[in-house]
Amino acid sequence: MAKPKLLIASDHAGYELKERLKKNLTHVEWVDLGPSDSARVDYPDFADRLSAQIQKNGGQGVLICGSGQGMAIRANRYRGVRAALVWNEASTLLSRQHNDANVLCLGARLVDPALSEKLVELFLSTKFEGGRHQDRINKLGLQPREGC
Q1: Of the listed 27, 65, 105, 133, which one is catalytic?
Q2: In what order do the strands lie in the sheet with 103-107?
Q3: Domain residue spans of the chain
């Protein structure tokens, strides 16, 4: 059976967690989009790398910064990217079941590393429920209506 493939990127605050996930979740084929060390970098640059690839080629990814919020904000600017900031099992499950999230955003300063590993596993194993949720996902691809 083929390994699941995940793109992964971080900023300096998320570098250690990024490396830990790659080391400990060896059943995943990781595509590391940087950075290559813990020197200070700007999170939007790495969210852009990952999001542009997902927008072009599809797939799934993991973005990590100090809070996870900055990465989520930036990634969600890309059409077709549904980046979910998660912090526990319930938020992760719902992000896949109801929102068909294709990017998991983790806060390295806020989520325990062992829990982060578990959340990646849940992200990979949880399926989108479709149905009424698909109608809502379809609306995400539309331009906002006037007044929104």
Answers
A1: 65
A2: 29-32, 5-10, 61-65, 103-107, 83-85
A3: 5-140
| Residue 142's pLDDT band (cuts 50, 70, 90) | low
The answer to whether 98 is a known catalytic residue is yes
Which architecture does CATH list for 5-140? 3-Layer(aba) Sandwich (3.40)
Residue 138 DSSP symbol: H
Distance (Å, whole) CA 72 – CA 64: 9
pLDDT for 144 beyond 60: no
Do the bridges between strand 103-107 and strand 61-65 make them parallel or antiparallel, or are there none, so unpaired?
parallel
pLDDT average, residue stretch 39-66 = 98
Tell me which of 12, 27, 98, 148 is the catalytic residue: 98
CA dihedral 70, 73, 76, 78 (to 10 degrees): -80
Q: What is the mean pLDDT of residues 43-62?
A: 97
Amino acid at residue number 11: D
